[in-house]
Amino acid sequence: MKLIVGLGNPGRKHERNRHNVGFLAVDKIAEEYDFAPYRKRFRGLVAEGRIGNERALILKPQTYMNESGQSVGEATRFLKIPEEDVIVLYDEIDLAPGKLKAKTGGGNAGHNGLRSISAHLGNNFNRIRIGVGHPGRKDLVSTYVLHDFAKADSDWLDPLLAAIAKAAKPLATGDLARFTAEVARDLGANDQAGPGPAKRAPRVQRPQAQAPSGQPARERLAKAQSAIAENLRKWMARRDGNEDA
């Protein structure tokens, strides 16, 4: 059995937070493969089902992000699931919005949910990093991840979640390379469909001071300042009776 963990915070007010993209992703997988309804177990919400030939249990810890390891550790110990059969999906601020990477093991990069899981389980679990972008300053990170996705983010978020769910078969078998390839192929097909809800945002290697809308904050500020200056110049010219000044 595979344990597929989505990370996030419980409660309605957190449902669409960037920090909850792991919850959103596993919900989409459960929907795609017709899993049983969620029920309370292991200090979380669990749903059972099959992804292809693999039995899988989806887990959404309800302990809050910082204590996610309590729920994951309890589930793995009771069900005797080895570390290498645990798959964790979570938000990654150091990846641009819409970008996805997968790996086994490694560091936790300051992510409190991963740090908690490592403390209860070890480091050799599978990680699916879902890029949500960076606010540009370290002191803004907590506020940024605990706020909802902007409406414009649906252009890349919805296709990405759908692609993750469609590619869940190789994910469940542990073939991370094939999983990421299938996600990329599906998103590439959406790009070819032209503008509209299915088209995702352009993907870059590292976000540079991204505003929530996806446009660089410095560029937006510069344009706004330029527009204000131009409007002020025109107003002063009209006031002085010299429209062409």
Structure description:
This protein has 245 residues and is an alpha/beta fold. 40% of the residues lie in helices and 17% in strands. It has helices spanning 21-32, 68-79, 112-121, 141-145, 154-166, 168-172, 176-192, 217-239, and strands at 2-6, 39-41, 44-51, 54-61, 86-92, 100-104, 126-131. Mean pLDDT is 85; it is low at 194-215.
In short:
This protein is α/β, with parallel strands linked by helices and 245 residues long. It has eight helices and seven strands.
Question: What keyword list fits this structure?
Answer:
about 240 residues; about 40% helix; seven-stranded mixed β-sheet; alpha/beta; 2 domains; Rossmann fold
Q: How many domain units?
A: 2
The helix tally amounts to 8
Low-confidence stretches are: 194-215
Pattern of helices and strands: EHEEEHEEHEHHHHH
What do we call the CATH homologous superfamily of the largest domain? Peptidyl-tRNA hydrolase
**CATH fold type of the largest domain:** Rossmann fold
Q: Which percent range describes the beta-strand content?
A: 15-25%
Biggest sheet statistics: 7 strands, mixed
Cα end-to-end separation? 75 Å
Regarding quaternary structure, what we see is single chain
Secondary-structure class: alpha/beta
- Count of extended strands: 7
Helix content: 25-40%
Describe the strand arrangement of the main beta sheet, using strand numbers.
2-3-4-1-5-7-6
Can you give the mean pLDDT? 85
Radius of gyration: 21 Å
